[in-house]
Amino acid sequence: MCFKNEEYFAAKTLYLAVLAVHQDFISEASVDVADEKKANATSFLDEFSTSVMSSLNNISGRLYRLSAYQTVARVQHLHDMYAVEANASYVQYWAIWQIITMIVCSATQVYSIRRLFK
């Protein structure tokens, strides 16, 4: 099985083929088989197909839950990304305001100290 993870929103298709060949069935292909053996083979195939279908349903359920977890993680990632971008602009404006305030305060202090010593 191979899963590609190229894009976030790409559809995934899974093809699973199961081929089961029993050694007795190969030799019996050319020989007529009694009704009992046909009944046994049919019941064997029914049991096998039932177990395979239950396994495939189990796998399908797990893949569905996995896609749900991926969707939740993708939404959380986008939420965090938007929060970081919003905080980045907020922090940038705050830093610029602080720099301007420090320049004004230092200029005021230099002017005040020069006036004291005149």
Question: Could you describe the 3D structure shown?
Answer:
This protein has 118 residues and is mainly α. The protein has a domain at 44-117. 74% of the residues lie in helices and 0% in strands. It has 2 helices and no strands. The chain has helices at 23-27, 35-116. The radius of gyration is 36 Å and the shape is rod-shaped. Residues 29-33 have low confidence and may be disordered.
Keywords:
mainly alpha; membrane; transmembrane; transmembrane helix; rod-shaped; single chain; GOLD_dom; 118 residues; GOLD domain-containing protein
Concise overview:
This protein is mainly α.
Which word captures the global form? rod-shaped
Class from helix and strand fractions: mainly alpha
Rg of Cα set? 36 Å
Number of helices: 2
Q: DSSP strand (E) fraction?
A: under 5%
End-to-end gap: 86 Å
The poorly predicted ranges are 29-33
> Secondary-structure element order, as H and E?
HH
**What's the total count of β strands?**
0
What is the average of the pLDDT values? 77
> What characterizes the major β-sheet?
none
Residues in helices, as a percent range: over 70%
Protein name: GOLD domain-containing protein
Organism: Rotaria socialis
Transmembrane segments: 91-113
Keywords: Membrane, Transmembrane, Transmembrane helix
